[in-house]
Amino acid sequence: MKDPRRVASGRIGALKLHGTYDSRAIASVARDGILAKFRAEAAAVASARGEEVSPEELDRRARYLRRSHMALMAYERERDRRKARAEKSTAIVSTSTAVEEVYAGAESTDLPTAV
Fold first, then answer.
1. What is the distance between the alpha carbons of residues 63 and 23, in angstroms, rounded to a whole number?
2. Above 90 in pLDDT, residue 97?
3. Model pTM greater than 0.90?
4. pLDDT digits (tens, 9 = 90+) for 23-78
5. Dist. CA 25–CA 106, nearest whole Å
6. Side-chain-side CA neighbours of residue 51 (13 Å)
7. Are 60 and 42 in contact (CB under 8 A)?
8. What is the pLDDT of residue 23?
9. Do 69 and 38 contact (CB within 8 A), yes or no?
């Protein structure tokens, strides 16, 4: 569970940052860095294959590698969420089964009642 104070603090900081500076300029540094990483990966693969690749082709391949990376992260995030939901569901079923076992065979007058 996220700490509401940290969430609010982060939101206030982000709003102040984007109200003070150009968001595109701030993000361009990160965007250029990650594209450089994927450009280097594309160049290494091309070099290993003995291919001569133009800078435009490296950029194109780098963009596809970035898209692949983002799609993989989204897939893994959804897989993990699905797994967590299944585990939570199993835990709820286990708890309710345990409660039923505790009260199995008890007379109806022995069971707790809602007030």
1. 21
2. no
3. no
4. 889 889 999 999 999 999 999 999 999 999 999 999 999 999 999 999 999 999 99
5. 69
6. 12
7. no
8. 87
9. yes
SS3 letters for 15-81?
HHHHHHCCHHHHHHHHHHHHHHHHHHHHHHHHHHCCCCCCHHHHHHHHHHHHHHHHHHHHHHHHHHH
How far is it, in rounded angstroms, from Cα 61 to Cα 83? 33
The whole-number pLDDT of residue 2 equals: 84
Model confidence at 88: pLDDT above 80: yes
Query: Which tokens sit at 51?
Result: 């291919």
CA distances from 57 to 40, 54, 74 (A): 12, 5, 26
108, pLDDT greater than 90: no
22-59: burial string, b at 16+ Cβ within 10 Å, e else: eeeeeeeeeeeeebeebbebbbeeeeeeeeebeeeebe
Tokens of 87: 């585990």
Maximum distance among all Cα pairs of the chain, rounded to whole angstroms: 84
CA trace torsion 26, 29, 32, 34 (10° rounding) = -100
CA separation for the pair 71, 32 (Å, rounded)? 19
